[in-house]
Amino acid sequence: MSPRAELLEIVSQLKNLLISYPQIGLEVPGLSRQSVTDTNPGDTSPGDLISLRALIGDCKRCKLSEGRTKLVFGEGAAGARLVFVGEGPGAEEDAAGRPFVGEAGKLLTKIIESGMGLKREDVYICNVVKCRPPKNRDPEGEEIQTCLPFLRQQLGIIKPEVICTLGRIAAQSLLGREFKITQERGNWFSYLGTPLMATFHPAYILRNPSEERQLKRAVWEDVQKIMRKLGLKVRKNE
Ligand code: SF4
């Protein structure tokens, strides 16, 4: 057997071993049962996301691991047509190990369910960095670059028809350039050929109550563009 074939065989065996741990009742250190089941059981290809989660493991690849309570991988349908990408977990997400479960998450869920007429579990929701930055600071460039391959792999597995980035950091991480959210939101961009709509982060709306009405209107305009792209019926007077 050539060295390359031998290496591929070892990688394949390691992958199978990690995947089998939860199935046989063992836990990979730092890998909770919650975290391996946070994809919808009815998904079209949950195994790929589960194995990706297993390979991330008890990640210590960047310093955000030092302050986290739970790694927040993402959740939703593995076959989702639409993926929302935020910046990183906040306090509630860090405690729950789930994305967008705090106040900003409630607003996002309202947009998905009341605005778009979908169920939250119909879409996929994740972040650029999987661990909470201390005091909710912006993730640093090195942290983003270290964690970004996981997001890229998630998107590669899910293959959504549309990606919606929430806030400046998510947009610039996937587009690979500086992004001015107030000037550039509401336009279509491309992430490796997949249409990408950039809009405001729900937390930004909540942090600016004096502009809430205007910001919500802008987000609703962007969401309507996504709905049209996905062939969803846009209800009037939202
Ligand atoms: S933020 Fe990403 S790269 Fe950093 S420790 Fe968490 S999972 Fe690993």
Structure report:
The protein has a single domain, classed as Uracil-DNA glycosylase-like domain (Uracil-DNA Glycosylase, subunit E), CATH 3.40.470.10. 46% of the residues lie in helices and 11% in strands. The protein contains ten helices and six strands, in the order αααββααβαβααββαα. Strands 1-3-2-4-6-5 form a six-stranded mixed sheet, with helices on both faces. Helix 1 crosses helix 3 and helix 3 runs antiparallel to helix 6. It is globular and about 45 Å long. About 16% of the residues have low confidence. Bound molecules: iron/sulfur cluster.
Spell out the blueprint of helices and strands.
Elements: H1 3-23, H2 33-36, H3 46-56, E1 75-76, E2 82-86, H4 91-96, H5 103-115, E3 124-127, H6 141-158, E4 162-166, H7 168-175, H8 181-184, E5 188-191, E6 194-199, H9 202-207, H10 212-229
Parallel strand pairs: 2-3, 2-4, 4-6
Antiparallel strand pairs: 1-3, 5-6
* Distinct ligands: iron/sulfur cluster
Tally of separate domains: 1
Poorly predicted tracts of residues: 8-45
Kindly report the average pLDDT value.
85
Q: Alpha-carbon distance between the termini? A: 63 Å
User: Class, according to the CATH hierarchy?
Assistant: Alpha Beta
Number of helices: 10
What is the annotated CATH architecture?
A: 3-Layer(aba) Sandwich
In terms of DSSP E residues, the strand content is 5-15%
Largest sheet: 6 strands, mixed
Kindly report the spatial arrangement of strands forming the biggest sheet. 1-3-2-4-6-5
CATH superfamily heading:
Uracil-DNA glycosylase-like domain
CATH topology: Uracil-DNA Glycosylase, subunit E
Radius of gyration: 18 Å
H/E element order: HHHEEHHEHEHHEEHH
Structural class by helix and strand composition: alpha/beta
